[in-house]
Design goal:
Homotetramer. The protein is α/β, with parallel strands linked by helices and about 500 residues long. Helices cover about 40% and strands about 20% of the residues. α1 (about 10-25) packs antiparallel against α4 (about 95-105), α4 (about 95-105) runs antiparallel to α7 and α10 packs across α11.
């Protein structure tokens, strides 16, 4: 099934992108070699000049200079910027959401949902500004008090990916700002226009509440621009979202200069569907988690591990649902699956399916390209592949809508299959048995940073810490105590006595 409406021509989209930028208060970028393309047609929305080495150096310098004063501002006062940003995002939710659709190819509800996520994290960060708690601990020495305090860390470099072009930036930036850090953002070169719009809104928010807008800097360009942030000693924390390969490059370079890293990398997320599962509930959750955002979420469901007693019935349900998914322009209200970001993504999907079939897999449905929008746009039908075993291609993350289905008979074997991949981001189990649910959440259950029961792997809320283990990088963003990554801890001992006892009862002199 395809959408009744094909993608509009690029000229219409280009004009609309310019109109949305003006509505969001951003100046049209100066023309240059960096191309902002829309996956809806594959055509060019705008061109802009990438940041030069001198401009990146200057941006880091401005952020470092602004930090010296910003760190002394009381945290609740710092929150005024974030509060105003949230208000501006609320006012411009539809416009920014539409720009996300044009530049990243997300369907309208998902694009607007991403902006709503930004608003939510702003609200969270405002409350957090009054809850940056330390601890007091009992001292073993009389007349002494022992405590820990938290202080701003410095300049935070944010490297974000195309699939969540604005939300992941906001997770980092809203929290970093209330923690007293300044931010330099290097977005994906695939989504420079949404970055320009967000940067404009944040600097406007700062100016309107009487704060120096230099607390936030934007640099644009390819990997070489991000590398300068990675290597600069003035950048205290590098928060990088992207592929495992990218993390393997970033982490050692930052570690070599004793900087900090916060990594959000690959996911190869699985759901265990047990014999007691509600198959209707599981089907709905699997379809959204696997096909939403055209399979281009780090939390996309890529593997289903189903009990042998229900695997056939589950696949039948999934196949029926997949064949009804409307594929087409994300500007169409009826569409649920928009385009892949580019031709490389399509080629990766095609080759992965070929490898899976060569390994003995059965292509149940999907995988074919849908001719919409022109030769430079890449629309595909989400695919389901039944696999006899968890082969090499299944253990890899392919950033496209491929769902591999494996079967199991023994619950321990299901856990082993689940954990037998190098990534460890998100996971789920569908069961009516509380013992199975509890085992999945236990220390010898799912080894992922996110483990869900009777809900899919995608759609995380901002209140919980987001991130994963193993090749996912170990970073945590957004809620809970993730704020600690953006601050430095100091242990303080206060002697309010007239004596000077030493710890452990040591006598000296």
């Amino acid at each position: 099934m395809t959408s009744a409406r094909t993608a509009p021509v690029t000229a219409e989209l280009r004009a609309r992108a310019a109109e949305l930028l003006r509505e969001l208060g951003a100046d049209l970028p100066e023309a240059g070699p960096l191309s902002a393309r829309t996956p809806i047609t594959g055509g060019e929305l705008a061109t802009l000049a990438p940041s030069t080495e001198a401009e990146v150096d200057a941006a880091i310098g401005k952020a470092a200079s602004a930090f010296r004063q910003w760190r002394t501002v009381p945290a609740p006062r710092r929150a005024a910027v974030v509060r105003r940003l949230g208000q501006l995002l609320t006012e411009h939710l539809d416009a920014l959401g539409e720009l996300v659709t044009l530049e990243a190819g997300k369907i309208g509800p998902e694009a607007r949902g991403e902006v709503q996520e930004m608003i939510d994290i702003c609200e969270f960060a405002v409350g957090l500004s009054r809850q940056l708690y330390g601890h007091t601990m009992p001292s073993e020495r009389p007349g002494h008090r022992l405590m820990e305090t938290w202080h701003p860390l410095g300049v935070v470099g944010v490297l974000s990916a195309f699939n969540f072009p604005v939300a992941v930036w906001s997770w980092n930036t809203a929290v970093a700002l209330v923690c007293g850090d300044t931010v330099v953002w290097k977005p994906s070169e695939t989504t420079p226009l949404t970055a320009l719009a967000c940067h404009t809104l944040l600097r406007r928010a700062a100016a309107e509440v009487g704060i120096d807008p230099e607390i936030h800097q934007l640099v644009q360009g390819a990997a070489d621009v991000g590398q300068r942030l990675v290597d600069d000693e003035r950048v205290a924390l590098v928060s990088a979202t992207g592929s495992v390969r990218m993390g393997q490059i970033v982490a050692p370079r930052v570690a070599a200069r004793f900087g900090r890293c916060l990594l959000e990398l690959g996911g190869n997320n699985a759901a265990v569907v047990t014999s007691s599962a509600d198959l209707e509930l599981a089907t709905r959750a699997v379809v959204f988690s696997a096909a939403g955002t055209a399979g281009q979420r780090c939390t996309t469901l890529r593997r289903v591990i189903a009990h042998a007693d229900v695997a056939g019935a589950l696949v039948d349900r999934l196949e029926k649902a997949y064949r009804q998914l409307p594929v087409g322009s994300p500007l169409d209200d009826d569409v649920l699956v928009g385009p892949l970001i580019n031709g490389r993504a399509y080629e990766a999907m095609r080759k992965a399916i070929e490898r899976a079939v060569a390994d003995g897999g059965e292509l149940v449905c999907g995988g074919e390209r849908v001719e919409i929008g022109g030769e430079d746009s890449y629309y595909v039908r989400p695919a389901i592949v039944r696999m006899p075993a968890q082969t090499a291609v299944v253990r890899e993350e392919t950033f496209a809508p491929i769902l591999y289905v494996l079967t199991y008979s023994d619950f321990d074997a299901a856990i082993e299959l689940h954990n037998e991949v190098p990534q460890g981001l998100s996971s789920a189990i569908f069961t009516g048995d509380q013992r199975e649910a509890e085992r999945f959440l236990a220390a010898d259950g799912s080894d992922c940073g996110i483990a869900n029961v009777n809900i899919g792997t995608s759609g995380a809320e901002i209140g919980g810490a987001f991130g994963g283990e193993k090749q996912t990088g170990g970073g945590r963003e957004s809620g809970s105590d993730s704020w600690k990554a953006y601050m430095r801890r100091a242990t303080n001992t206060v002697n309010y006595s007239d004596d000077l006892p030493l710890a452990q009862g040591i006598k000296f002199g």
